[in-house]
Amino acid sequence: MNRRGFIKAAGLSAFALIGGAAPFDEALAGIAPGRYGRNEKALRAKRWGMVVKTREFRRPEDYAFLADVCRKEHNVPRIDGPQNVKWLWHDTFARVFPDAVNDYPDERTRSSVFPLLCNHCDNPPCVRVCPTGATYKTEDGIVAIDYHRCIGCRFCMAGCPYGARSFNFKDPRLFLPDPPPNPAFPTRMIGVVEKCNFCAERLAVGRMPACVEASDGRILFGDLEDPESGPRRALAANYSIRRKPSLGTRPGVYYII
Amino acid sequence: MLEKLLSGPKTYYLWLLFLLCLIAGSGLVYLQQLREGLSLTGMSRDVSWGLYISQFTYFVGVAASAVMLVLPTYFHHYKKFRRMIIFGEFMAVAAVVMCALFIVVDLGQPQRMLNVMLHPAPSSVMFYDMLVLTGYLALNVVIGWTTLEAERLETEPPRWIKPLVYLSILWAFSIHTVTAFLYAGIPGRHYWLTAIMAARFLSSAFCSGPALLLLLLFLVRRLTGFDPGREAVKTLTTIIVYAMCVNVFFYLLELFTAFYSGIPGHSEPIALLFAGHGGHWVSRWMWAAAAMALLSLALLLPPSLREHRAILPAALALLVAATWIDKGLGLLIGGFTPNMFEEITLYTPTGSEITIALGVCAVGALVLSLLWKMALGVKKESRDFAG
Question: Which of A85, A256, B91, B176 gives a 20 to 30 Å CA spacing to B9?
């Protein structure tokens, strides 16, 4: 932490003691500056967000293809069994939206699958509970992980209401080819937590997230605070939902149903 | 006072040797876990905490329970506890040592554990848990050592110890409250998201901790002839009965809210714990816990039964087993099943996991044995030992 960051954190801590905890969480979640080095072509936003046009996806394979792209981009190992690692995957409506209970859903809702990934919440419980600041929120709304600071306590996995996080129970490098699919992106070590990072490393060099690029316009990505951005225009024109909105986490991933 | 550790009967050395072997054996399994990661355990993406964290939680309760001796002695000047108070304080020391070790063995990157202090995160409950546990350990070491030293020199303890004792009383409540906050502040984990969690933790700790203490003291009585005192045992048993009644009552409150409201999120984890889809092994344990809890109360409530020399230890053992299953197994499994997608992922601790947990318990037993040996040596010399 540099001097400025320290003074900010100290000030915020003092403020929290006086002013109560609710604004404190958000303030603290917001102080970590972006740690991905950006070049002059970097894409910038006040708050990155994603909109999935689920009606334009037909088959589970459409999502599986995107998940593969993501795996290759981020060297996500393919491990079988309950100790697996997932950044982007898909499941049925009832599992993705367990709150939206409907005894008689329409045919499409019943038979379709929906993509799952980190929601990059505005008010992320994982950032709140992390005891070392290894999970942090960047100023443009991305929830990121410092793999070198993570102690592997898995409090964030208990804290995330979306099951978005994976722990490296096994050495992930044993499940990757050598060299890994994308040598430009770091592989992880055993014993740390990982998840989708909204491709912060690509945004930093002016590229859209890998799944967005591969989706042929079926996944929109942009600034949620800009009314003219692609996601905002799509949200203005369509009915959309988010996962578990009642928990107050304010997810940054929207689903047009 | 350390010289008290050097002399003892053959059984004392055999016991220490046994514990050291156990620690060494499970240490080897832990080395394997360091190499191969937590893949050795039964934990998974869905059940990401298991036996280690649940034992941590249980033993924070055991540590906090020392206050059930300290509070009557210092706030109410109840003199009868004076003889055994040191055993409660030293049990708290051993329990906190175990808690710290249970956290360490649960970490994926234990060599980075100091990051909790190097990069403190005041928004995380774990940060406060680290603070209160370290503080509680220090308080009990200082208080226990100083009062025992005073007893050995047959003087009154120094005056500065009093404020520390009062602080330790408040501190004991804080350690288990903060531990409950680890769970009770998490959105989306239905079984944990309940305001009564801290109260339930404290009530369960205040019956199970003293019960464990009494059982161990009965063992010590048989081995060494040390007598905690008839009246003191009677009073502590009464405290245990009250705490257990409150503990069972609090659980029934949970059941009411969960099942009368009919909200699936509230009722499903409990239904799963007791009725388990596809016969989860934990259901049998939970029913056994419920039966043992009620049976222990049936034996402890009537004074004629609980004062019986043979019935009391049995009733206390039932109570400890029941509260251990509730907090040491059910709490974690209920919190993680069903998972965030309302699916069920079974969790069963592996042999390696159980061995490592036993190793941590052996370290706790070693610390406890040495500290108690010292206390018993001093008590014997100062003739505050029997009768």
Answer: B91
